Amino acid sequence: MTIQEYVPLASLTTLKVGGNARAVAQVSNEAELREALEFARANALSFYVLGEGSNVLAHDDGYDGLIIRMGMRGVTYDEAEQDTVRVHVAAGENWDALVREVAARGLWGFENLAGIPGTVGAAPVQNIGAYGADIAQTLESVEAYDAGTDTVHTFSKEDCQLGYRDSRFKHEPNLIIVRVHFVLTRVPSPRIEYGDLLAAKEQGTDLTTPEAIGNVVRAIRNKKFPDLSVSGTAGSFFKNPVLSPEAYAALEREYGAVPRFPHPHGIKVPLAFILDRILALRGFRLGNASLFGAQPLVLVLDAGGTAREIEALAQHVETLVKEKTNISIEREVRSLPKK
To answer: Are 215 and 204 in contact (CB under 8 A)?
Structure first.
């Protein structure tokens, strides 16, 4: 394990902002994770686990604690059953690399989640989802190291308390995911009911294999997200709001037909529609921060921008949405504490 001191958080997050972290530990196994946590305790430092930094807003003032970067690697397959394959993945593996690997094996279940940045360990924390799919549909269990008790526990899918871009791991930072177990299938099971995928099918695009669907999803995402080599972004900054039937009816009375999607707890409404069609915020800019022209749900930061500018734009959007629609929106991106 290596520990570096006073590392710029801008170099560890895709938003490319943030002051220095007091210390950064790169861990490649559970023994090194224990060692990193012992270092934090010995130096009275808080800790924060970070994968590829694709869903985090770091403060300009930095983080006065230990950043633990998960470098655990390894993917194994249990192919004992005829139609299903269990996939066991270390937390530090790159998510999209895993999606490509299982698709090349002809396994179904991840293809709609292609192109999402980040690590495998971060995927259950956020219950990542896109184009009609989410991790909850393939997750079997999670192994997590409990920093409070220095023990590893296995959590079933039910134990993970997965919700819309949510899980127990968001609220229990002492639980550090070290390994994730999935169940995929060899049986063709394309999910192409999402609008952009249906449009691709109608245009004659091949959607008959997980590889083909994954490639189409990546192409769609590339049009809706900025180039990370040019701008800083954390992808979709806000969650799509879930409304009660009464709140949705009030929204339609005020603004006409609004797209809707079924949700276990109400009606999910695409926030991008509200930002674009109701508030006309597509491309809106405050300083170096803006809403991406191709997808207003995505906040973009120009080179030289600051976390304060991202925060100012996010708060402005939250205020406008509340004033115009009476909807309180939630952030998908997590803010790194200062300590």
So the answer is: no
DSSP code for 10: G
Report helix, strand or coil for 48.
strand
Rounded Cα–Cα distance for residues 273 and 296 (Å): 9
How many whole angstroms from its chain centre is CA 257? 29
Euclidean distance between CA atoms 38 and 192, whole angstroms: 47
Side-chain half-sphere exposure of 268, counting CA atoms within 13 A: 13
Q: Give the global pTM.
A: 0.93
User: Of 282, 239, 241, which Cα lies nearest the Cα of 258?
Assistant: 241
Q: Which residues are tagged catalytic? A: 165, 236, 332
At 194 the pLDDT is: 79
Q: What is the pLDDT of residues 176-206, one digit of tens each?
A: 999 999 999 999 999 988 778 888 888 888 8
Pairing of β 175-185 and β 84-90: antiparallel
Residue with tokens 């504490």: 337
Name the residue among 125, 102, 111 with its Cα closest to residue 180: 125
Sheet of 151-156, strand order: 75-78, 84-90, 175-185, 139-146, 151-156
pLDDT for 339 equals 65
Structure tokens at 15: 């938003």
pLDDT confidence of residue 50: 95
The per-residue DSSP string of 155-193 comes to EETTTTT-BTTB-HHHH-TTEEEEEEEEEEESS------
Q: Are 300 and 274 in contact (CB under 8 A)?
A: no
The Cβ of residue 154 has, within 10 Å, a number of other Cβ atoms equal to 12
Q: What is the pLDDT of residue 228?
A: 78
